Amino acid sequence: MQVVWHGTNKENAAAILKEGFKPRSYFAAHLEDAVSMGGPYIFEVWFEEEFRAESWQIVIREAVPPERILRHYKVDRTSIFENKDAQRAMRLHQIKGEFGPDAALCEACDGTGSIGPEHPPFTHWKEKLKTGKMCEECYGTGCPEAGAAFREGLAEEEKRTDILGD
Ligand SMILES: [Zn+2]
Hints:
By secondary structure, the chain is an alpha+beta fold. It has six helices and six strands; from the N terminus they run βαβαβββααααβ. It has a domain at 2-77: ADP-ribosylation fold, CATH 3.20.170.30. The chain is 34% helix and 18% strand. A three-stranded antiparallel β-sheet has the order 1-3-5. The protein has a three-stranded mixed β-sheet with strand order 2-4-6. The two termini are 16 Å apart. Mean pLDDT is 83; it is low at 119-131. Bound molecules: zinc ion. Zinc ion binds next to loops.
């Protein structure tokens, strides 16, 4: 048994409450992933199956009825305090750990990843992109090396997505 989270926008949330989830819907193992990838309207859903421990998200083959929804709420993302310097320092630490001591924050977006035009690179990111912008230099990662790795890793990401019913 497993409890997972699905994030979406207001319109989709109303439809899900009434009709449940369509096949190929995504669910995350952690709430913060559901919010950042899907949107602030959150559903907690339970499944009888457990998915692979290394998977951070799952995709369902079959439709899931609204009876499986444990609760639904909106996550209020209003920030009381944003420490940009701390966020930049953490991002730089993470990037250097992953890509070596020469890795640097993206100069175009100063490591925020949130500038430039909106364009949807993946279907499941379209909700995120409706509400935010994505730096094209770094693919929204805040680091050009990370962005390049992210592009290359899309196929791997698919493999790490568990499909219930397999
Ligand atoms: Zn950037």
